[in-house]
Amino acid sequence: MVVVMKERASEAQIDSVISRLIELGMDVHRSSGATRTVLGVVGPQKVDPELIGLLDGVHEVLRITEPYKRASRTFKPEDTIIVLDDVRIGGDEVIMMAGPCSAETDEQVMASAAAVKKAGAKILRGGAFKPRSSPYSFQGHGEKGLQMLRRAGDAHNLKVITEVMDANQIELIGQYADIYQVGARNMQNFTLLRELGHTRKPVLLKRGLSATIEEWLMSAEYILAGGNNDVILCERGIRTFETATRNTFDISAIPVIKKLSHLPIVADPSHGAGRRDMVPQLARAAVAAGADGLIIEVHHDPDHAWSDGAQSMFPAQFDRLMAELRIIAPAIGRSICLEPVSRRGWSR
How far apart are CA 57 and CA 35, in angstroms? Predict the structure, then answer.
């Protein structure tokens, strides 16, 4: 349930209500707005809303009808903004995450990091552990790949996001990455999600291959219930009967999430289409629809990439996309990459 305090409720009244709720075995999340304080309340016990409504300073008590509680906008009306030093995910700026599908070599990771940084990305993406459909495909370099990503991130002042596939990888990846990424295949790996709830680093949760939006938010709830409030949702396309693209990119999921949840949402047009020639169109549409960021595969030589080369953009293509997004973002009251950018040409 949600407890809305009166507009002029004192700190003593707010603290008294919180203390009473804790006594009743509930977890309380306080959200203080410009005029009111809202208390999000969850727990295993059933509490009589009328009794809470009689406490001093309480304006009203609302039941949360959605099965996901902490992820609901009823629970937390204002947007969640995740802060990593000077990077704010969910704020006015649309944050760009970009880099290769896989960390292959030091030279490849460093070149890709330099390219995306020059274009305006704030976060370097790349895989060290790769979930592949075929057991014979490149599976990643493991810790060696993590070291490559960290070196490149430090060299170019980029945060690092990389995928975690299993609970036993959390500690190792946490030594190198700034953000954990949960892939589509693991969206309902509840053991992994529970463990990530005990960490204090942001988690990017991709939508499952055929998951509904409610199922996706319920998976986010596992992480939030563990105490980790820094969850980023990622729309990456879902599996349908259509075969013209790798997945069916669900643009409508972005405004739906914005309505239902306070969590930031980013879009992954690379997996949404599976073809680099379609990525710019989907990226532009995602920003226009309200995405808080994009995660895009960029490779300095995608024709020779070890994985997902067909959906990886050339650096020059990424430069041009960034220039286009700087036109779109202000039209909807957002900004993107405020630093000056030097382009290398848009021939490809």
Answer: 13
Q: Which is nearest to 133 in space by CA: 209, 212, 203?
A: 209
Model pLDDT for residues 129-173, shown as the tens digit of each residue: 866 566 656 667 889 999 999 999 999 999 999 999 999 999 999
- Name residues whose C-beta falls within 8 Å of residue 12's C-beta, 6 or more positions apart in sequence: none
Distance CA 42, CA 228 (A): 15
Instruction: Reduce the DSSP state of residue 62 to 3 states and report it.
Output: strand
Nearest to 173 by CA among 164, 184, 183: 164
Residue 30's identity, in one-letter code, is R
Does the pLDDT value for residue 122 go beyond 70?
A: yes
pTM tops 0.90, yes or no: no
Distances in whole angstroms, Cα of residue 23 to Cα of each of 2, 60, 111, 137: 17, 20, 56, 54
Cα pseudo-dihedral 108, 112, 114, 115, rounded to 10? 140
Beta carbons of 84 and 178 less than 8 angstroms apart: yes
Residue 191: phi and psi, rounded to 5, are: -65, -45
Sign of CA pseudo-dihedral 348, 290, 243, 112? positive
What is the rounded distance in angstroms from the CA atom of residue 26 to the CA atom of residue 45? 7
Tokens of 29: 């999340």
Residue pair 184/236 in contact (Cβ under 8 Å)? The answer is yes
Rounded Cα distance, 106 and 151, in Å: 9
Q: Give the amino acid at 299.
A: H
Give the separation between CA 243 and CA 232, rounded to whole angstroms: 28
Residue 208's Cα: distance from chain center in Å?
14
